[in-house]
Amino acid sequence: MTKTHHSSFESAKRVVIKVGTSTLTHKTGMINIRKIERLVKVIADVANSGKEIILVSSGAVSAGFAKLGESGQDRSLEEKQAAAAVGQCELMNMYDRLFSEYGYTIAQILITKDVIDLPIRRNNAVNTFNALIGRGCIPIVNENDSISFEGLKFGGNDTLSAYVAMITKADLLINMSDIDGLFDSDPRKNPNAKFISEVDRIDDSVKALAGGAGTVRGTGGMVAKLEAAEMVGQEHITMIIVNGERPDILYDIFDGSFVGTVFKPQ
Ligand code: GLU
User: Fold this and answer.
1) Are the C-beta atoms of 10 and 50 separated by less than 8 Å?
2) What is the three-class DSSP state of 264?
3) Global pTM?
4) What percent of the chain shows pLDDT beyond 90?
5) How far is 47 from 15, CA to CA, in rounded Å?
6) Looking at ligand 1, which residue's alpha carbon is closest to its atom 2?
7) Residue 178 C-alpha to ligand 1 middle, in angstroms?
8) DSSP E strand stretches across the chain
């Protein structure tokens, strides 16, 4: 695929980066160390350039089952919630060790839907985000899967990252997925699928493109990503979908040269 050139996102100050399970873990479910090491290095460097980064990281459930030596297939809600509790520690331990190599302090924020819905709780969360960012910390967010009564059904971290971008008034939401962006049909099934590098308006014709282009190990898929883009777009926030396979793509986003789909704010 040829490189697509977009306007530069150099001026974006507060940036929410969402990384999916399929980017962070191997097919075995275990953490992909090479990928997470590179991701942390690039994010630390981007933060060094003056950007305020909030990371929304999936991978807890997958890493939890891997650590327990169990398969994540066909598991009950309770089992997934238990695995999330195990895997969340594993993930944060990894992030803590890696980010501290570059001098960054990380902070874990676990959110449930009621935090977003209830103004008092939402304001508390926003104040915490701002207090952390003001201290140069990198907040790392996940859904509080283990106690969430929505039961891992927040809409997945695609939706969560959109809420986080909205409440923290981010300038940009980057969704790092296992697909380059939006195509006019599923590129896994159709080698001639056409890539769409820019979406001005998410209307029914765009939504119709999203069907089925989901991921295997994450909960997202393109439908959830389009919903996220629509949500943040209404708040004048741009969302970009890029392939997280190569974490250095974050540099390309701020340089203005990258392959990905940009969803313009509505
Ligand atoms: N919160 C889930 C986890 O950390 C992932 C949700 C999602 O993949 O969107 O495993």
Assistant:
1) no
2) coil
3) 0.93
4) 76
5) 10
6) 58
7) 14
8) 14-19, 52-57, 106-111, 138-143, 172-177, 182-183, 195-196, 198-199, 238-243, 261-263
Rounded Cα–Cα distance for residues 180 and 194 (Å):
11
Which SS3 state, helix, strand or coil, does residue 235 take? coil
CA of 58 to the centre of ligand 1 (A): 4
Of 87, 53, 45, residue with least CA distance to 217:
87
Confidence class for position 110, pLDDT limits 50, 70, 90: very high
> Rounded distance, CA 235 to CA 169, Å?
8
Pocket of ligand 1 (CB under 6 A): 20-21, 58-62, 84, 142-143, 145, 156-157, 218-220
For the segment 143-172, what is each residue's pLDDT rounded down to a tens digit? 999 998 665 566 689 999 999 999 999 999
Closest CA to 226 of 266, 253, 257, 193: 266
Q: Phi and psi (nearest 5°) for 85? A: -65, -40
pLDDT tens digits along 187-239: 888 889 899 999 999 998 888 887 644 443 444 588 899 999 999 999 999 99
Report how far ligand 1's centroid is from the alpha carbon of 94 (Å).
Answer: 17
Q: How many CA atoms lie within 13 A of 29 on its CB side?
A: 18
Q: What is the mean pLDDT of the chain?
A: 91
Ligand 1, atom nearest to 218 Cα: 8
Ligand 1, atom nearest to 57 Cα: 4
For residues 192 and 6, what is the distance between their CA atoms, to the nearest angstrom?
Answer: 23
**Average of per-residue pLDDT across 8-26:** 93
- Cβ count near 91 (within 10 Å): 25
CB 69 within 8 A of CB 28: no
Predicted confidence (pLDDT) per residue in 58-76, tens digit: 999 999 999 999 999 999 9
